Amino acid sequence: MDTIRMENAYINKIKQINKNGKYAVLTMGCQLNENDSEKIAGILKESGYEKTEDLSKANVIVFNTCCVRENAEDRLFGKLGEVKKYKEQNGTIIAIGGCMMQEKHIVNKLKESYPFVDIVFGPHTMQDFPKDLYESIVENKKIEDILDIDGNIIEGMPIVRDDKIKASVAIMNGCNNFCTYCIVPYVRGRERSRNPQDIYNEVLSLSKQGYKEVTLLGQNVNSYMVSEKNNGKDVNFEVKKEDGKIVTVNSFATLLKLINTIDGIERIRFISPHPKDFTDDVIEAIAESNKVCKLIHLPLQSGSTRVLKDMNRKYSKEQYLSLVEKIRSKIPDVEFSTDIIVGFPGETEEDFEDTLDVVIKVKYEQIFMFIYSRRVGTVADKMENQIDEKIKHERFNRLKKLAEEEIEEGNKKYVGTIQKVLVEGKSKTNEEIYTGRTETNKVVNFEGNNEMIGEIIPLKITSQHVWYLKGEAIKL
Ligand code: SF4
To answer: Which of 10, 229, 303, 460 is positioned for an S-S bond with 131, CB 3.0–4.6 A?
Structure first.
C-alpha cells in the first residue's frame, strides 16, 4: 500500500485570505461517504471556515456524492438547481466530490447543464481539495480534478466529526469483487488497506476524546490486507501500542483483536463484510473479542443460487446458510443483519421465494432492502432480462411485509431481558424520552437524563415494536 501524508500548505494559504467564511457539506451516500464528508469538513474547518446549515449563508458548498443508487443522481441535480441562485446572488463556491464524479457521463452532464459548478473532484483526489479551492478562489477558474487510476492511501487529513459518542474509521478503500450490479469497483478502484499503525493511532485518539464505539469501514472489510498479500507484499506489520508492546497485524482478524485492546472503546462494529471472505480466523476473533458487537452484518443480496451466480457474488444459498450456522455454533447469542436486492435481472418468482426462505431461516435483526436499479457501466445494466417495475415493487412490498413481521416477532425475545444500551441522546420527537442502542443495534427508547448520554447503561426491556424497543432504567 502506498501511503502519503497530507500537506497543509494550501490550507494555510486559504486561511490567510478567508474572512469569517462559512461552509456546508451535503452528504449523499453510504457510511464511507459520510466518513469522507467528515474529512472535507475537516479541511474547511482548518482553512478557517465555520459550519452552517443555511445554504444561503455559505461561502463554500460541497456536495459529496455517491453513485450506488439512482436516486442519488436525482437528488444531486435537484439540489444543484436550488443552489444556483446562491451562486448568482453571493458568488458561493460550488464544489462536487465523491464517487459519482468518477462517472464520465455525470461529469459531462455537469459541464453541459450546470456550468456554474466551480470544482469537480473525485475520491482519489480529496487530499488536493485545498489546492483546488484556493485556485478557484484566487484565480476564479473552473477546476476538474479527477484521477482515473486508484489513489494512494492518504493519512493526516483533518476531520470534523458531528457525533461525539460513535465514530467511523475507514480501514480500506476500493473493491476487487465486481458484483455485476455494482459500480463501486469502477469508481473506487482496487482494494487498498491502511497501515494498521495508522488505524490503531486513530482509534486510540478517538478513545482519548471519549468515543465509546467505533465502526471499521470498508467496501469489503474482511478482505483487509488480502489484496496486498495476493500481490506478494509482506503484510506482517509490527504495531507499537500505547504501552510499548509490539503486536503483529497481518489480517482483518488480527486487526480486530488489536482494536479490542484499546481502553475506553467499548463497542466495535464493522461494515460491510463479504460472506465469501468470512474466514474461520475472523469468526474466532469476533468470538474472543469482548468489545466486538455480536451483531454481524452479512449481506445476502439474493437467496437464489442462480441469481447469486449472475450477481457474481461467489457463494450459493446453501453456502450462505451454512456460514450462518457455523458462525452461530462458534459465537453464542450472535445475531445478523443483511442487505437484500429485489428485482435483479432475470429474477423469477421462484428465485424471489428463495430470498424469502432465507429471511425466514436466518431471522435477521435488521434488513436493508433495495429495489434493483440499473447503474450505467455495470454488467447487469446490459442484461436483457430486466424486471418490470411493477413486479419489482410488488416483490419489494412482499419482502418488506415479511421482514417487518419477522423482526417484530424476533423483538419479543428482548422483552423482560436486561440490555446494555449505549445512550445517544434525546429522542427527536419527545423531549422526555432518551434513546440508545443495544449491542445488536436495536433502538431502545426510555425515560432518562442528560448524565446518561454517552454511557452504556443497563435497561430492562418492557415492550417491543417493529423498529424499536421500550425500556426502563434499572440499578444492577
Ligand atoms: S463487494 Fe460487490 S457490492 Fe460490495 S462494493 Fe464490492 S462490488 Fe460492490
So the answer is: 10
Closest residue CA from atom 1 of ligand 1: 177
* Atom number, ligand 1, closest to the C-alpha of residue 312: 2
Q: How far apart are CA 291 and CA 265, in angstroms?
A: 8
Neighbours of 170 (CB within 10 A): 20
Q: For ligand 1, is residue 220 a contact (CB within 6 Å)?
A: yes
Strands 192-193 and 456-464 come out as: unpaired
Beta strand pairing call for 166-170 and 213-217: parallel
- The pLDDT of residue 476 is 59
Closest CA to 346 of 319, 320, 316, 311: 311
Residue 473 to residue 190: CA distance in whole angstroms: 47
CB of 184 closer than 6 A to ligand 1? yes
Q: Is 430 exposed, middle or buried (0-12, 13-18, 19+ CB in 10 A)?
A: exposed
Q: What is the rounded CA–CA span in Å between residue 278 and residue 288?
A: 16
Quote the CA–CA distance of 462 and 353 in Å, as a whole number.
34
Relative to the CA of 185, which ligand 1 atom is closest?
7
CA atoms within 13 A on the CB side of 428: 1
pLDDT digits (tens, 9 = 90+) for 443-475: 999 999 999 999 999 999 999 999 999 999 986
Does 179 contact ligand 1 (Cβ within 6 A)? yes
Residue 225 Cα to ligand 1 middle (Å): 16
Compute, in angstroms, the gap from residue 35 CA to the centroid of ligand 1: 18
Q: Tell me, what's the pLDDT at 188?
A: 87
Residues whose CB falls within 8 Å of the CB of residue 280, separated by 6 or more in sequence, listed in order:
none
Please, what's the b/e burial string for 108-125 (b: 16 or more CB within 10 A of its CB; e: otherwise)? eebeeebeebbbbbbbbb
- Cell readout for 160 is 470534523
Residue-wise over 26-40: b if at least 16 C-beta within 10 A, else e? bbbbbebbbbbbbbb
Taking 50 as the pLDDT cut, the residues of the chain under it are none
Q: What is the pLDDT of residues 331-355, one digit of tens each?
A: 999 999 999 999 999 999 999 999 9
If you measure from the C-alpha of residue 182 to the centroid of ligand 1, how many angstroms do you get, rounded to a whole number?
A: 6
Q: Is 274 in the pocket of ligand 1 (CB under 6 A)?
A: yes
For the record, the C-alpha cell of 371 comes out as: 429495489
Place of cell 487530499: 127
Cell of 196: 494498521
Q: Domains in the chain, please, with CATH?
A: 3-145 (3.40.50.12160), 163-293 (3.30.750.210), 297-412 (3.30.750.200), 415-473 (2.40.50.140)
* Structural contact between residues 275 and 263, judged by C-beta atoms closer than 8 angstroms: no
Distance between CA atoms of 304 and 465, rounded to whole angstroms?
A: 30
What are 449's three cell numbers? 437524563
Main-chain phi, psi angles of 243, to 5 degrees: -85, 5
